[in-house]
Design goal:
The complex is a heterodimer of chains A (659) and B (294).
Chain A (H helix, E strand, L loop, with lengths): L14 H25 L11 H14 L7 H30 L6 H31 L9 H28 L8 H7 L7 H25 L7 H10 L32 H9 L5 H4 L2 H4 L6 H15 L20 H5 L6 H5 L6 H15 L7 H11 L22 H4 L4 E4 L1 H6 L1 H16 L4 E2 L10 H5 L3 H17 L4 E4 L2 H10 L8 E4 H10 L12 E4 L13 H10 L2 E2 L29 H10 L5 E4 L2 H13 L7 E4 H9 L1
Parallel strand pairs in A: 1-2, 1-3, 3-4, 5-6, 5-7, 7-8
Helix pairs in contact in A: 1-7, 1-9, 2-8, 3-4, 4-5, 5-6, 5-7, 8-9, 9-12, 19-27, 23-24, 24-27, 25-26
Chain B lengths: L6 E6 L1 E3 L7 E2 L4 E2 L6 E3 L1 H16 L4 E7 L5 H10 L3 E5 L9 H12 L6 E5 L10 H9 L3 E10 L5 E8 L2 E8 L2 E5 L10 H7 L5 E3 L38 H9 L16 H14 L7
Parallel strand pairs in B: 1-6, 1-8, 6-7, 7-13, 8-12, 9-12
Antiparallel strand pairs in B: 2-5, 3-4, 9-10, 10-11
Helix pairs in contact in B: 2-5, 3-4
The chains are: A mainly alpha (659), B alpha/beta (294).
């Protein structure tokens, strides 16, 4: 079968395409170079490890689309646009190879399938673009802030695909392509031109061809100057993403006398990866839509944060500095101080972001600068920091009284009774907070019932330091860790059970930065394990509706969603999930050190979450975190529902089921 | 820089953190040194913050911290340097631990009068022992006017006088006096938090320490007031009084506290508005003679 078509049919000025391509690639190259030089303003980021893992993950994400598909409408839209463009690009490359290298690729059956695939891809692309236009301008999705550039890109892409189909259909109409049916769209369109004079078809074809070529190459050249840059930066950003758990913060080196600045006080203090993040962001709004601060009218918007940094970086990266803008302070002018302190570090932004932008390290980085270098932070934190330093707990209660909660209980203390198989790390809340002491007491009952050999550190335990680190007080965090590590090492502690997800996250993921090497388990995991092993006999059938608040530091940051739900199931409750659960869970508002701060702006985050919980009409609200327990219980009280709804930790439910 | 002698002296005492139990050495009537949880006296820290604020407004003052403290308190004293004090002098010697407020005042006076000063600021009392005498005695020994229990202090632009606010029951007094003077602080803003670079800088500074001889004292002055006995407080006795109804005390209390709900079957208890339930509870208590009106 002698299939095929004449490349450049009807086009006399081939030189034009070469001219366009040179201009396009020059613009592209220059634009990318400028952006690259801006990223290089930042500090080293140490992301050159595990090249194969990174490559695999990136390819998987590009081809499989991963997080983009979490939302069906934009997911479908992007899938169509992406695969449409990629297919057409590959197809165009094949044509270019034939045109420039004389390789007879477009022949035989291959050519026919080629035509079909191209047309389908083009159609898919068009459908995707239509969905996008619909979403952006008709449905007016509230998260999308439409800028002129967005419309320009859509118009450009639409223009390319429409002119492309017309080039094809004009050619089919004019040449009477015998295999025209293999390009269904082009073929149908060609029907419009039925009866038009051939010379008219040809001259129109020439014009539309040039327009199509100009637009297509224009697109390539336009990439670095528009949101289209994400076709380069998103895969790059995915490749260089952090391989560490999201609840981990970078270590500051205080031993090195040569380092004079700590934290991020100016744009150049960010790492180059932080700066690349800003160019990968496409303002999809997924970070903002579940942000507890944004949802309660605080000045923090994760999307705005990244975009403002991008603008700032572009200003700072100018070849010719603009003196008007060079005196802007990062913190204060570019980023509002109140926005910095509004973050609860819940991680929803980072969990949802399809291109793996890392919001939390930037915020904590800036907090570090404010606390360590400027001593500038919400005033109520002054005594919190001092209390942690001198008393080993944020309330400033007596260090020597840390084990008083266990008076009268069967609890071994390491100092007196020696290290046991497990260390039960009680945490500050379990040791000092009245409500949470009951959880610790329940834990002791459970562990003893199951015959677990455990001990507590008692008055030798100090705050794990989670709040200190999240608030940016890295110096205080490191002193607490050093003190705790000394104690833990001296007793040869290996296995740790925690009741607080924050202690759990810090001991498991951050203490290794200081040489810690422990098997750390959260009490829900541990209890679920004990039940499975038959060490705990629960009488099921506790009955009643219950809903569960996923703690951010247990769920999102550490991926533990199943064990708590297993426990609820085994106890015989009827679990009704709240609006937004598991990975989409909404923060209780206490993380990031916010539990120690006044909530002066906007609405109260815990009220918002309590409303979600009460919306399931539960008899109980279950939690697995002292912060969530406090916040949800307060929320229920404020809603005057505390005589109808019980807020409780899972350990308390288990101990009731045992008795 | 300091030829004019414009300096503010802060006296700082390391004290036991009373959030932790006070464990007494009954023989000596002191807090058992082995169980001491050291912190710097919080009212002294308030005084230091006031001094720093004065200097923020009127640069040129030198802030000197004088502290009667053992060597183990050096680390805590560094915080004074980190927040901005220019100098810390630590005084210690044989028998200083036994000094009474007067003895301490004598030692402080000797250490302070070595150099000229405009103002002495101190906390109004120690957080652990609470005599509140050392400040006033120090002022007398140095012949200074004194204002105690201040809430705020403002230095005149000419650095010749101060204006102080203090609170007494029912009213706020504004007082002024000329310098040099001594003021003790009762309340005020917390000491500022040190910046990390300052912490690092002062970690290498040697804190000057002087013994009693260096400030011209032969030894610790003997106590003027004798300590006879130190006893732990007796736990408060709590008694439950009420009408004799023949019911055991604890059961009666439970009945009272539950508002009578204890006596009823659970299925008979219904929720109702607060006001109604309160009235019903009181009715029940009176009816059952669980409480009697006088």
């Amino acid at each position: 079968m002698n299939t095929g078509r004449e490349i450049f049919w009807n086009i006399s000025s081939r030189g034009m395409i070469y001219l366009f391509s040179v201009m396009a690639f020059a613009a592209f190259g220059y634009g990318m170079y400028r952006r690259y030089s801006m990223w290089r303003l930042g500090q080293p980021a140490g992301r050159n490890d595990h090249a194969w893992t990174r490559t695999k993950f990136t390819l998987n994400l590009i081809l499989g689309h991963g997080r983009i598909l979490r939302r069906s409408q934009p997911g479908l839209m992007h899938l169509l646009i992406f695969w449409g463009m990629v297919t057409l690009f590959v197809g165009t490359t094949i044509v270019a190879l034939q045109a420039n290298l004389g390789m007879r690729l477009l022949q035989g059956r291959f050519y026919l399938y080629f035509k079909l695939v191209m047309d389908t891809a083009g159609l898919g692309l068009l459908v995707g673009l239509l969905i996008s236009v619909y979403r952006r301008y008709l449905q007016k999705d509230e998260g999308l802030d439409n800028q002129p550039g967005d419309g320009a890109v859509l118009a450009l892409l639409t223009g390319i695909i429409v002119t492309g189909f017309f080039v094809e259909s004009l050619r089919i109409a004019s040449t009477g392509d015998p295999w025209g049916a293999w390009s269904p769209v082009g073929n149908i369109l060609a029907g419009i031109f039925h009866g038009t004079a051939q010379n008219k078809l040809n001259s129109t074809h020439k014009i539309v061809w040039v327009v199509h070529a100009a637009l297509s190459f224009g697109l390539i050249g336009y990439v670095p100057y528009s949101k289209m840059i994400h076709i380069i930066t998103a895969p790059l950003n995915t490749y260089f993403r952090s391989l560490k758990p999201t609840g981990t913060m970078a270590l500051l080196d205080f031993e090195n006398d040569g380092i004079k600045r700590f934290g991020v006080g100016a744009l150049e203090d960010f790492t180059w990866k932080d700066l690349l993040d800003t160019d990968a962001c496409v303002r999809c709004d997924r970070c903002q839509s579940n942000c507890p601060a944004y949802a309660t009218a605080k000045p923090l918007s994760p999307k705005k944060l990244i975009q403002d940094l991008r603008v700032h970086m572009t200003e700072r990266g100018r070849l010719i500095p603009d003196s008007r803008n060079s005196v802007n302070n990062l913190i204060g002018d570019i980023i509002e101080e109140d926005a910095l302190w509004a973050c609860t570090t819940c991680g929803s932004c980072m969990e949802q972001c399809p291109v793996f932008v890392e919001h939390i390290p930037k915020i904590v980085g800036m907090r570090r600068n404010q606390v360590l270098m400027e001593s500038r932070f919400p005033p109520e934190l002054n005594s919190v920091f001092r209390n942690m330093e001198y008393s080993g707990n944020p309330w400033g209660l007596g260090q020597t009284k840390r084990a008083d909660w266990a008076n009268g209980l069967e609890v071994k203390v390491v100092a007196k009774d020696g290290a046991a198989e497990y260390l039960y790390w009680v945490g500050c809340a379990g040791s000092f907070d009245d409500r949470n002491m009951r959880v610790a007491t329940a834990m002791v009952g459970i562990l003893n019932h199951a015959g677990v050999d455990f001990a507590i550190l008692g008055s030798e335990e100090k705050c794990c330091g989670d709040s200190a680190r999240r608030l940016g007080n890295e110096y205080l965090f490191q002193s607490l860790v050093q003190e705790n590590m000394k104690t833990l090492r001296s007793y040869g502690i290996k296995k740790v059970i925690t009741q607080c997800p924050h202690c759990f996250n810090t001991l498991k993921n951050e203490y290794p930065q200081f040489g810690g090497n422990f098997e750390v388990v959260h009490h829900t995991e541990f209890i679920a394990g004990l039940i499975e092993m038959g060490k705990i006999k629960v009488k099921g059938g506790m009955g009643g509706t219950i809903t569960y608040q996923d703690p951010c530091y247990l769920g999102r940051h550490n991926g533990i969603y199943r064990s708590p739900r297993e426990i609820i199931n085994i106890l015989g409750f009827r679990l009704v999930e709240m609006r937004g659960s598991s990975q989409e869970s909404f923060c209780c508002g206490a993380g990031g050190g916010r539990i120690w701060m006044e909530e002066r702006l906007g609405d109260r985050i815990n009220i918002r979450r309590t409303e979600d919980a009460l919306g399931t009409s539960p008899e109980s609200i279950a939690t697995a975190c002292p912060y969530c327990l406090t916040m949800m219980e307060d929320g229920v009280k404020l809603k005057d529902m505390d005589d109808q709804v019980r807020t409780v930790d899972l350990a308390e439910l288990v101990i009731e089921a045992i008795r | 820089m300091n030829e004019t002698g414009r300096s503010i002296v802060i006296t700082v005492a390391p004290v036991h953190d009373c959030q932790n139990p006070v464990v007494l050495d009954p023989l000596r009537g002191r807090i058992n040194p082995a169980c001491r949880q050291w912190i710097l006296n919080p009212p002294d820290m308030i005084a230091l913050e006031q001094a720093l604020r004065i200097r923020d407004r009127i640069p040129g003052f030198r802030i000197r911290v004088v502290s009667i403290a053992p060597p183990s308190a050096e680390r805590a004293l560094r915080e004074c340097l980190a927040v901005g004090a220019d100098e810390v002098v630590r005084v210690w010697g044989e028998g200083v631990e036994e000094a009474d407020p007067h003895g301490l005042a004598v030692i402080l006076a000797a250490a302070i009068r070595v150099r000229p000063f405009q103002l002495i600021l101190a906390g109004w009392r120690r957080a652990d022992v609470e005599h509140a005498q050392t400040g006033p005695m120090l002022a007398e020994l140095l012949g200074l006017p004194q204002i105690t229990c201040a809430r705020s202090i403002e230095m005149g632009r000419d650095s010749e006088s101060i204006r102080v606010e203090k609170r007494i029951p029912g009213r706020m007094l504004t007082m002024s006096c000329s310098l040099p003077a001594l003021v003790t602080m009762e309340k005020g803003p917390l000491l500022r938090y040190p910046r990390y670079p300052d912490r690092r800088r002062v970690s290498k500074i040697q804190i000057a320490s002087v013994d009693l001889g260096a400030i011209g004292l032969a030894g610790v002055p003997p106590p003027l007031v004798q300590l006879e006995r130190v006893t732990p407080p007796k736990p408060k006795r709590r008694s439950a009084l009420g009408a004799a109804t023949g019911m055991p005390v604890v059961a009666r209390l439970q009945r009272i506290l539950s508002g009578g709900a204890q006596a009823k079957k659970e299925s008979n208890i219904r929720p109702c508005p607060d006001k109604v339930s309160t009235l019903k509870t009181v009715e029940h208590l009176l009816k059952e003679k669980l409480v009697l009106l006088p």
